[in-house]
Design brief:
With 233 residues, the chain is α+β, with helices and mostly antiparallel strands. It contains five helices and nine strands. The structure holds flavin-adenine dinucleotide (FAD).
């Protein structure tokens, strides 16, 4: 396990070259971006063809986990020790400049590299699935109808130790060409936030059932990245 305060050593694969000043490799910076999300893109190659599959994930220390149907081609492929690149992106602000060229985006992103492996042991797999549910809905797992053997068999969980990773973060106002600052044009940034909206209840739910405690963090108006960060700590 890579403990807190350690750094990934950037290699030719993971060193940020374009705008290198926006790159970071320390574990805390990378973990904070990972913990503020639960959607990622998993990139891998089958027979020379690249695929990038969006899916949900969770982190424990220096390991990333994701899951799905045992029939998923993505999960069958990444479980055979193929190289994987998993990315996570937060879109924070649109950056509005005085020329089209200098428009930009403020973002936080991570690219994590490693080799994924299936979690074969049923107890370990169940524990991983419990961790995923409780990561999003604290305390929800024990309330749920227990997982059946068939459901467990039909679900693949893969884990990947992060071998190396980079973060890249842009913050701040637009950076325009010096003469353009004299132009009478609006310039600045526009915040983009993903927030929790209003619930719907399942029309087939038995009437009168209260919203469970595990959903308490998911309050309308909460910023999703801040909420997920709180849930991760
Ligand atoms: C929301 C968003 C919008 C973007 N829009 C644009 C755009 O319109 N045009 C554009 O050119 N770029 C954009 N980028 C930046 C883009 O992700 C790349 O960083 C950039 O294109 C340089 O790519 P490269 O392959 O030359 O990077 P290189 O610096 O050559 O990549 C080398 C290594 O650096 C690391 N790295 C590179 N980019 C990232 C990253 N974003 N996050 C974490 N690690 C990274 C990886 O480990 C990678 O293997 C955007 C990024 C985000 C998150």
């Amino acid at each position: 396990m890579i403990g807190p305060m350690t750094e990934f050593t950037p290699t030719a694969r993971s060193r940020v070259k374009r705008h290198h000043e926006r790159g970071a490799y320390d574990f805390d910076a990378i973990a904070s971006i990972l913990d503020a999300a639960f959607l990622c893109h998993v990139g891998y190659v089958i027979d020379g063809q690249p695929y990038v599959t969006p899916t949900s994930y969770w982190r424990e220390d220096d390991r990333l986990y994701w899951h799905g149907s045992a029939a998923s081609r993505m999960l069958r492929t990444v479980a055979t020790s193929v190289p994987v690149c998993l990315t996570v992106t937060h879109l924070d602000r649109l950056v509005i400049a005085r020329s089209g060229f200098h428009h930009s985006i403020n973002y936080r992103s991570v690219m994590a590299f490693g080799e994924a492996a299936t979690i074969a042991d049923p107890d370990e797999k169940l524990a991983a699935l419990e961790a995923f549910v409780n990561r999003l809905y604290p305390g929800r797992w024990p309330e749920l109808r227990p997982v059946t053997k068939q459901e467990l068999k039909g679900t693949t969980v893969v884990g990947m130790t992060i071998a190396e990773a980079s973060a890249k973060v842009r913050v701040g106002p637009p950076v325009d060409d010096e003469p353009d600052y004299a132009l009478p044009l609006w310039a600045g940034t526009v915040a983009i936030r993903q927030v929790v909206g209003e619930d719907t209840t399942d029309p087939r739910m038995i009437p009168g059932i209260a919203r469970p405690a595990g959903l308490a963090p998911w309050r309308a108006g909460e910023a999703v990245d801040a909420l997920l960060t709180r849930l991760a700590t």
